Queue: 3 jobs
Job 1
Amino acid sequence: MDLLEKIKNAIIRFYPLDEQAWEILEPNLVVKHCKKGDLLVKEGDIEDRIFFLGSGVSRNYFLRNDKEFTIDFHFEGDFVTGFYSLITGAPSILTVELLTDAVIVVFPYGLITSLYDLSAKAANFGRLIAERQYVVRLLKEMDLMSLTAEERYAKLVDSRPGLVEKISVKHISSYLGIHPESLSRIRKKFL
């Protein structure tokens, strides 16, 4: 299956985009081959694109007092961007970094919003992506407040079995809100 077909299938998982909208969108998509460490979004920049991960892993993080805080990971088949900047037009409050080599597809946000006027299905698709982002955030906040570090790690490993091999202990521990040493002790229990 080629990458554009993969994207179309990913979109259809959320909502069946009509052919008119797809025919307008498809010629404007840009496929890029990126390297581990490349930044898709930089803190302080104003974002105007959405990325689809055809392959690879990325993380969203922010800096405070020279310390990195990982707030999310994205994997093959996910849409990723600096949503805060995209929605508000303000500078991004986070950075999106590729943790592996990746193939991405770039969606110009202006084109997507123009499709909202042409197609109710395109507008519903955009709304569903926003709703999904809200649900993911809410569940993560609830987990941080109610689960132990060990339970959060187990949940992460269960939801993304290959995660541990692809992402550093430093990034996983930051995401879980624990020190790397604590994560090392927890991981030993899972071996």
Job 2
Amino acid sequence: MPLYENISISPEQAVFRHCVTLAKNVNFSGEPDITLTWVKDPGYQQDYIDLMDFPRCITIGQGAYLESLDRLAFHCGRLKLTIVKRNAMQAGKIAIGSRCVLQGTAIVAYESVVIEDSVVFGPNVTVMDSSGHPLTNRGADDEASRITARPVLIKEQSWIGMNAIVLPGVTIGRHAVVGAGSVVRTDIPDFAIAAGNPAMVVKYCDAPGDHKE
């Protein structure tokens, strides 16, 4: 059974600057939940989590807005950014572009989650690049070493609807729209509108101004 160790950091702490790179005019509304996690097999249990293993693991671009307060018209939870290191592997990374809007968004990165500029998330979207466990032999002494990850890329000026889930290995195209409550398992092309579980393309937009959910 793997062991999980966690460190929570906040923007007020000095260590925050070691792990998070902020551009100008980044606005946090409420207190985000930013967690560094080391998942390790029994052979690594003699060591303790070290902040030095998480340098610059999160970058947030200019003018991004990150909401953690439930004061919206719809339910909005606390923003959660989680970086995971598996055994001796390199810790994951989250890159959030300029002018992005995140509202109670939960992002988990074992390897890489990249969000390009001007992406807007509705409340309570989940983005993950790993399921966090292997499919077989759960609880075995090598479980952490068998956890796989596939990078996620959300391209510029896309919209992700409320309560959507973006699964590992997905690329969402430029100016794409993902409907509320959708589960995105496969790539979404540029200018596509996708909805459902699993999310399927229902139509295309000719221009960004045509986007409607």
Job 3
Amino acid sequence: MTDSDQTRRPGPWENLPPAAPVEREIARPQADEPPLDKGQHPVWAVVSTLLLGGFIWWLSGSWVIAVAAIWGLLVHEYGHVLAMNALGMGPARIYIIPFLGGVAKSQRLPASEWHGVLVSLAGPAFGLLAAIPFFGLYIATGQGMWLQGVFIIALINLVNLAPAPPLDGSKALGPVLARIHPMVEKAAMVAVGAVVIVWGFTNGSYIFAAFLALALFGHLKRGVWRPEGRQLNWPEAARSVGLFAIVAAACAGVALAGLMPLTGSFSQAMALAGSYFEFGR
């Protein structure tokens, strides 16, 4: 006997209306979320790095200084990237600007000015690690040219601490000055920026000085003076000044450590380092 030989009652799942089609939810970008920055194209990044390195080699006449400057720049910017990613501003990207330098770009603004201070100081602080391989090469070979690389790396990070837009120092000390009064920050940025621009022009650093002049002009045209996140409170302002002083002292110390074996004494190393900051040298 088979089931087809007798009448069968319909089961509980038979003769039911067809189920409505299930609509798949498609993820849509948030209206207020900016598009993800894909970063600098690899080919253009390589070309920009070669142009910058060649320009530094042409100015200095030393391939060691050119290599040290590029290596120090990349490590410096990667310090910014690490801080941005750790503070929820990433994924950050590095851009190399031909004949000028580099910049680290975040996907979003810092949640507070304190975060902005940490990001700005992370570059010079982390950037000093780039000097370690050059110290190692000097110890291994005894050749003083590697110490030139140490000095250049320290100098790059130290110059970036100048409180002139758009250098890191302006982002580290600017919020502290704005905590006193926005006009105090404005006056200080204009004064220091003008001094650095004059220093660049009198020493033949025309591209650097012109770039700073344009950045200072854009800084002055900005409508809202402190638009980023929550302002510093007084304890954060004190910590900002303290961290700035520590990083600046570390940069100066590494620079002198690179010069002392070449000059033979601390006083001569100080004199040589000071000559790099003279006007019209």
